[in-house]
Amino acid sequence: MRKLIFILTIIIQSCAMNKDVLITISTPYGDMKAILYDETPLHKKNFIELSESGQFDSTIFHRVIENFMIQGGDINLINDEDVIDYTIPAEFNNSLFHKKGEIAAARMGDNVNPDKESSGCQFYIVQGKVYTEDELTLDINALYGGVRRLLEEEEYADTRQKFIEAQSDPQETQKLAISLSSVIEDKYGIKIRKDLSDDIVSAYTSVGGVPHLDGGYTVFGRIVEGLEVIDKIAAVKTGPGDKPTEDIPMTFKVDRINKDKITKDYGYTYPE
Asked: Fewest 10 Å CB contacts: which of 39, 82, 205, 248?
């Protein structure tokens, strides 16, 4: 009998380990389905608890900026007193970045929060924009600093004249500057291109996102269905403080589903 109980316990544990949480965020503009990353266990646990307890229900998207993000989840806004007064330690991971559809934690600024700890409840969902590879990988300040040095040299007098002629056309000016990037790197040892992984470049040049937030805010989840809902919410009319002129409330539902089914139905592949 003990052996049978032991075997059943192992089977039950194995089944539980093969399941994950799928969260449905319902809004007047449609539903979004989200998974939460195992790589950020503190944020995952907290988000599940707030969703299952009903504390997230009736919170609103209180800050919306098109081509940037939609922010919500402030439980304290719908209560007479601050019921969420804790923060969560940052859980940065280089494989998790701000492409469209990612869920990340809002936080206080670096001046009062040097450790970049996350809000206990506020989160945002990335919309962002699509970048060209040059926009994404070029260090513009380094590039133009190198261009200024180069144009001071007499041997580049002809190039200097080309910049003078193109000064009223920003696109042509940038094109000229980019054409000199290899010369600047070789001549002055200035690094013009940022070191970004192929995955990051591919994501930001296809679906888009907000790369300048990487490394500053914890990314802990992903919208795996309902990206169009992000676009609809991001396009609403807003007033002071980027607050929508009409409230956009949310409700949350938590389901525990087999990981294989999540991969099959939503295309998310779990890390090995």
From this structure: 82
Per-residue pLDDT band at 11 (split at 50, 70, 90):
very low
Query: Does residue 164 lie within any of the structural domains?
Result: yes
Q: How many domains does the chain have?
A: 2
Question: Which amino acid, one-letter code, is at 249?
Answer: P
* Same domain? 123 vs 144: no
**What pTM, to 2 d.p., does this model score?**
0.87
Residues making up the chain, counted from first to last: 272
Enter the tokens of residue 158: 């002809």
> If you write DSSP's letter for every residue of 45-88 in order, what string do you get?
HHHHHHHHTTTTTT-BEEEEETTTEEEE--GGGGSSS-----EE
| 164-212 per-position pLDDT tens digit | 999 899 989 989 999 999 999 999 999 999 999 999 999 999 999 999 9
244 found inside a domain:
yes
Of 187, 193, 93, 189, which Cα lies nearest the Cα of 133?
193
Distance from CA of residue 61 to its chain's centroid?
Answer: 16
DSSP 39: T
CA distance 144 to 43: 40
Q: Which two tokens stand for residue 4?
A: 């049978």
Q: What tokens appear for 100 in the block?
A: 């469209």
Query: Which residue in the block uniquely carries the two structure tokens 């193109």?
Result: 166
Judge if 93 and 57 occupy the same domain. yes
Residues 117 and 157 in one domain: no
What domain range includes position 218? 20-132+206-266
